[in-house]
Fold:
Amino acid sequence: ALHEGHVVSAQELTVLLQPVFTQNSRNLILFLHDTLSIGDFTYLSEFYGNKNPFQNQVNKLFINLLQEILQSSPSSLVLPAVDCKATKYLLSFLLESGYWKLTNVTNLDVSQLEVNTSEPHLLVVQLQPLLSQLTEFVKLYMFLFVEKIIGRLTMDLQEREIHFSVIYTAVRPSRISRRTDVVGELRRQLMATEEDDSLSYPPLNVTTGNDTCILFYASNFSLKANSSVLIDLTNATFVMQNVDISSSECSDINTTLSLKYTKPVNGISSLEIRFLMTNKFYGGSARNWSTLDSVEIVQDEEKFAKFNVSVISAPAEYSFHCQLVGTSNLYPARLIPSNNEARNWDVFISKLQIQGFNIENNQFSYASDCTGFFTPGIWMGLVTSIILLWILAYGIHMIMQLTTNSRFDDPKGAALSVPQTE
Structure:
């Protein structure tokens, strides 16, 4: 995760842009300013003390346009700070990373723009910079002009049912904010927004008749094939719900959550992920426990990968929750490859919550978390305390074993002799 104030380097940017080259969309639009900063979006807002209704309306129109584009897209990413060296050579990097047909869009009338859907296109739109020495009226006009270009081009491609991705950035920053009070306020707003986003969509539910038998939720659900092809299934599963769950099975003993995706990325025509859960009675605890026994991945109905699961279990009346689940050794709940095909997959699930039995009112029950009571920090404290107590006890024992001599040698008298028997 990118923390507040982090500046994305060129290497990090190339990693973050990899999904652009692996998704179904074969067209990319690059809106490129000469200078731009994230502060330009709030420069004309009321937050900076601007009380001009016309200025506020212009800024609101532009922000709403960007928000509509972000919300309507299956996935989006906002990077507040990117290294200038990374954005300066962004166009060159894009041209080297794919076989794009480069098109420079200079005419505002994009209705005559020809886009051949059989080959990938890179549309570059050079936007005018928002220079600091310009008057506020000119800046307002430029905001309207930029909003008009972005709106026309994106709406025209959508009306023609052409799938595309958009990158909106600049070559270098236009301003550096030195207002610490603004930074603090933005931090609180960003944290609040992140909290709201985590609850922005409901869990996926599988029903039998009128009853819900499976609930599944994750804030991030991603796979990586052959350590190169990233497959982000979060939006397809929870937001757009472009997933087939008809093969899921529910019973009082065994439950299978089946997620089928059609063409999740280029090169994969179908992908099915199965979560196999069981409900068993254990005499030691005198209660039923639900356990996620295995996770299976079927690619193109041919390649079968199976993972054994560790630590994912809960009382049958509860749901299970874990912050990180995946194939990494660092995760508290691991997916362990069970066959050779499974070694070609990396799985990452964050904030997983799943329940396959005893669901009431279409809601998760109390969650049993994967984090145990004895965390590494607690174990370190206990071991250190035991060692110190052992040293203290050993010292007290040695002191108690000390004895004084029962006889003393008189230097003026005869020499003291001690028999060997004593």
The chain is about 30% helix and 30% strand.
